[in-house]
Design a protein that fits this description.
Helix content: 10-25%
Radius of gyration: 15 Å
CATH class: Mainly Beta
Number of helices: 5
CATH superfamily: Electron Transport, Fmn-binding Protein, Chain A
Order of helices and strands: EHEEEEHEHHEEEHE
Number of strands: 10
Length: 168
């Protein structure tokens, strides 16, 4: 199956299901050198009159450097058949493992950005803003649950420049 490019407003998926339950691969870098990580936190909507997503990456993650350096990133959404690959990408570092080799996922390039051919949907995003989350500004229960011993996240806002969906 081939990807079909659509506008963000044409996508009829359920963002709560796609992010929170199905998870996704956040991929940043170039087609020649990139890293991907599994994520299950994020938001989508309209920011500055642009279709946008927010992603959250801990400073300690290998993907963090790629997000900092680049201007483009992708969110690749998969069906349940790729759960094992997403689990691997979320629990193993790209510093130590070749995630493509280990998972068997096939890199694809969409609008110059790395993504994966097995995805049913890919958002191509242009980084528009980034800021560190300050745990000290969060309510105590959130700070304790999510930032007790772990590094803080950096928030990245990306303009969704294209959505690619698999044609049936």
């Amino acid at each position: 199956m081939e990807f079909k490019k659509i506008q963000a407003a044409e996508w009829n998926g359920n963002i709560f299901e796609a992010i929170g339950k199905q998870w996704f691969l956040l991929t940043a870098g170039t087609p020649e050198k990139f890293n991907t990580m599994t994520a299950s936190w994020g938001m989508a909507g309209v920011m500055w009159n642009m279709p946008s997503v927010t992603c959250y990456v801990r400073h300690s993650r290998h993907t963090f450097g790629f997000m900092e350096e680049g201007d483009i990133f992708t969110l690749s959404f998969f069906g349940e058949e790729q759960r094992k690959a997403l689990t691997f990408c979320g629990s193993h570092s790209g510093r130590e493992f070749d995630k493509v080799k280990e998972t068997g996922l096939t890199p694809a390039v969409l609008d110059g950005a790395p993504a994966f051919a097995e995805a049913h949907t890919v958002f191509v995003c242009k980084k528009r803003y980034a800021a560190d989350i300050r745990p000290e500004d969060l309510p105590a229960e959130i700070r304790t649950q999510f930032y007790g011993k772990d590094a803080a996240h950096k928030l990245f806002i990306g303009e969704i420049t294209a959505v690619y969906v698999k044609e049936d």
